[in-house]
Design goal:
alpha/beta, Oxidized Rhodanese, domain 1, five-stranded parallel sheet, two-stranded antiparallel ribbon, 35% helix
Length: 172
């Protein structure tokens, strides 16, 4: 009988594994992220990126947040392009066939910039689903000054609710 319960507990644990990543984001995050994403730009999830990187896929990350947000933390190697002051000249050196993942805090701003990139002829542009908030909430590393850090700029107090509390940096 003891062995039966042990086997049952193993099966239940294995069945819960796919749902563990859903628990990484605050309640309501999934609904908000779906609403914010621009439907004209393909979405890519952080788990997909991690798998691609493990296979050696080269990905160019573009950060569509403002510089104050980027300076707190960003995905390693990401190029800051901004949102309000975005200019296509800032990415003229990027091959139009390169795999590009663009992100912001939750996916809204990056979706708008992603749409512009696709209209300009970039062929492999993806919007990071849930933005940097989802990336960090799911335990993926963020960097500042080439060093891993533990916080993310919350954009403002209202939007910061989508970050795990321990990840929120102080607002200026």
């Amino acid at each position: 009988m003891k062995r039966f319960f042990y086997k049952i507990s193993q099966v239940l644990f294995i069945l819960t594994i796919p749902f563990l990543s859903l628990a990484q984001n605050p309640e309501g995050f999934e609904t908000m992220a779906k609403r914010m994403a621009d439907k004209t730009v393909p979405i890519i999830k952080s788990s997909q990126i991690v798998k691609l990187q493990a296979k050696g896929k080269e990905i160019i990350f573009l950060d569509a947040r403002e510089l104050t947000e980027y300076n707190v933390s960003h995905i390693k190697g990401a190029k800051h392009i901004g949102y309000d002051d975005f200019n296509m000249n800032s990415i003229k050196e990027i091959d139009k066939n390169a795999t590009i993942v663009i992100y912001c805090s939750v996916g809204y701003r990056s979706g708008k910039i992603g749409k512009k990139l696709r209209e300009a002829g970039f062929t492999s542009v993806f919007n990071l689903w849930g933005g940097l908030f989802d990336w960090a909430n799911n335990g993926n590393p963020v960097y500042a000054n080439n060093k891993e850090v533990k916080t993310v700029h919350p954009y403002n107090n209202n939007w910061g609710k989508w970050l795990k509390p321990e990840l929120k940096s102080k607002l200026d």
